[in-house]
Amino acid sequence: MPDQMNRALFLDRDGVVNVEKNYVHRIADFEFVSGIMDLCACALTLGFRIIIITNQAGIARGYYTVRDYDRLTGWMLDQFSLHDVHIDRVYYCPFHPTAGLGKYKYDSYDRKPNPGMILKARKDFNLALPDSVLIGDKDTDVMAGLSAGVGYNVLLSESLPDIEDSECLHYSSLPDITAWIAGNFRQSR
Ligand SMILES: [Mg+2]
Asked: Residue 165: pLDDT band by 50, 70, 90 thresholds?
């Protein structure tokens, strides 16, 4: 049985952690979204684990390598650490079902909107998904959360969602999401 206290904040990467610039893979292009550190600090105070789940089709498409991705991820985690934010794990999916090259052309269960990465995290950290929160900037992020059984799925977008309103929460900035989390969750551990 998952521990009820063991909840996670799932973050999409591009468009939530860093500003979306299409296939970001260089440190020079990686710009943290305003408010991400405060959001994470708030979530940690409330006892959330923080887990990043990211589609990285740029690897499949040959735009950059796993090594490039790993280098950027290491740097990103260092930046979080400098702000006392511990990210429990980053899951990524390097595949694409049609545009992938060679072994990366694969219809992966990990690729959002599929729930594979979230379900792996549930197993790895014994998470209570109904008590967990997911934040993404695309409908496919929300769909992955819904499919996995994440209790609170938040779309970060300045435009109105295509997805049914009833299926997700919708905010246009990270500070707004931080305020929502601070106002609706109690400290759990
Ligand atoms: Mg995104």
From this structure: low
Output the domain CATH number for residue 126. 3.40.50.1000
What's the domain range around 16? Answer: 8-184
| 189 inside domain | no
161 upstream amide cis, omega within 30 of 0: no
Q: Is-catalytic flag, 14?
A: yes
> Distance (Å, rounded) from C-alpha 68 to C-alpha 63?
10
Average pLDDT over residues 119-140: 97
Q: If you search the block for the tokens 């490039």, which residue do you land on?
A: 68
What spacing in Å lies between the alpha carbon of 184 and ligand 1's midpoint? Answer: 24
pLDDT at 3 over 80: no
pLDDT of residue 166: 75
Ligand 1 centroid–CA 117 distance in Å is 14
What are the residues facing 10 on neighbouring strands?
51, 134
Residue type, 154: V
From first CA to last CA, the distance across the chain in angstroms is: 17
For 142-158, how does the pLDDT look when each residue is reduced to its tens digit (9 = 90+)?
Answer: 999 999 999 999 999 98
Task: Report how many domains make up the chain.
Answer: 1
Confidence band (pLDDT; 50, 70, 90) for 72?
A: very high
CA of 1 to the centre of ligand 1 (A): 31
